[in-house]
Design goal:
Elements: E1 12-16, E2 19-23, H1 25-35, H2 43-68, E3 73-78, E4 81-86, E5 89-91, E6 94-96, H3 102-129, E7 133-139, E8 143-149, H4 155-175, H5 183-195, H6 200-221, H7 226-246
Amino acid sequence: MFQAAPPTRFDLNFTLAGFPVRVHPLFWVIALLLGSGMDNLLMIPVWIVIVFVSILAHELGHALAFRRYGQDSHILLHFSGGLTIPESAPFGSGYANAGLTPNQHILVSLAGPFAGFLLAALTLAVGTALGGEIIVTTILGVIPFPLVLMPYGSGILTDIFITMLWVNVFWGVINLLPVYPLDGGQVSRYFFIQRNPYGGLRLSLWVSVMTGGLLAILGVTVLGSIYMAFLFALLAFQSFQMLQSLGRY
């Protein structure tokens, strides 16, 4: 599900900050499906643009962190979101990837969500500059979530700011949960491996299975999101399969 999709003749290709970017056509299809339930039809194309910009910023955060540690990369946006894929460098008669330390892997993983949080902060700053009022609410009564309410008569603008914040804050927080192969799952993996080189990978996968299963249940019972329930149930199942492949010992 999170593997690189093969190229097609319908791909959008461009370069951003020196990084090659490829957008698979299914990226647009999934973004459209996720936004198809909006009441305001004018917000659907806006939603697609916001998803594109936000996921691109997220992956750019990963790519810049890779570059910081001497690793080139390229960005792929596809049906399940985005991937930042390290480039292999010439080594002897073949190619090899640069060996990052566990702490460097953790920082590369964190760079994506925090790039989204930075974009959310910029959104708040722009909204305030345009006369909007910032209020803070919570998601599930736990996660702080900022909103920008624009002056009366600016309903569509308020919707744009709230959607931008929703994608970058809520999705960023979800991405930090310890479910493999999300960014939080990668952080969990390298955290446990550093402390227990022998059993750390297995422990991180058990955390992924339990967290993913819990989120799948919450997706249905609390958020009413079949997509979220399916996604995390699938990720939990994949982590369980990885556990089985490791064997008993």
